[in-house]
Amino acid sequence: MPRHPDPDLEHRILGAASRLWARGGEKALTMRAVAKAAGTTTPTVYERYRDRDDLLRSLRLETRRELFAAISRTRTLRQAFERHLEFALEHSHAYEVLFDAVGKSPSLHEPWPSFNLIRERLAKRLGGTPRQHTRLMLAVWSLMHGTAMLIIRGQFEGVLRAQTIHACLDAFDGILDAAARSKGRNSGPAWPSNLILGEGKQSRVGNDDGRSEKGKSKANKLHR
């Protein structure tokens, strides 16, 4: 009898890859190990993915699509924030892979749809263009991701987990209230024009923002 294609195979392969990476990083993520964990053969994995980098890229893109689908069904900023946390905790292994070296190529130059969706909602609520709120979005993103990783890596459960989530949501509300009151005023240097996030191939993290050497030195001390 002819073999029928397995519709769940790619999902199993990507799921196995995310679990292996989360447990042991790059050393644990071999094509052979992925095949074994997914219940298939190594040649079958190679038929779908050229190498480990191709596998990780596919996993990142699928996770981003799923996260965006979850967030896009919400109506408010707070709901989007809460759903981001829920998704991270429900798909912890894939979520960890998604944010590994997120500020480096190739991840930096891939689309960040959820980042852009929440940034657009910030602009709609506070006024201005989405790009004008990139720094605020970075604060929101840091809060969401930091909370998610604290719960995941810290193995928070029960009351501690619930309290951490609600503390994070309260902090989010506080950030939005403060942003509305500050009317765009920020501490430190202005956002560099060549620091672009979330916009696929246009994204870049150039460091030459026109500051003097003295100003750069002072900023570097703060970030050590």
Your description of this structure?
The chain is 66% helix and 2% strand. The protein has 224 residues and is mostly helical. It has 2 domains: 1-49, Orthogonal Bundle (Arc Repressor Mutant, subunit A), CATH 1.10.10; 60-207, Tetracycline Repressor, domain 2 (Orthogonal Bundle), CATH 1.10.357. Strands 1-2 form a two-stranded antiparallel sheet. A hairpin with a 7-residue loop joins strand 1 and strand 2. Helix 4 packs across helix 6 and helix 8 runs antiparallel to helix 9 (158-182). The longest helix has 25 residues, at 158-182. It is globular and about 60 Å long. The termini are far apart.
Brief synopsis:
The protein has 224 residues and is an all-alpha fold. The protein has ten helices and two strands; from the N terminus they run H-H-H-H-H-H-H-H-H-E-E-H. A two-stranded antiparallel sheet has the order 1-2.
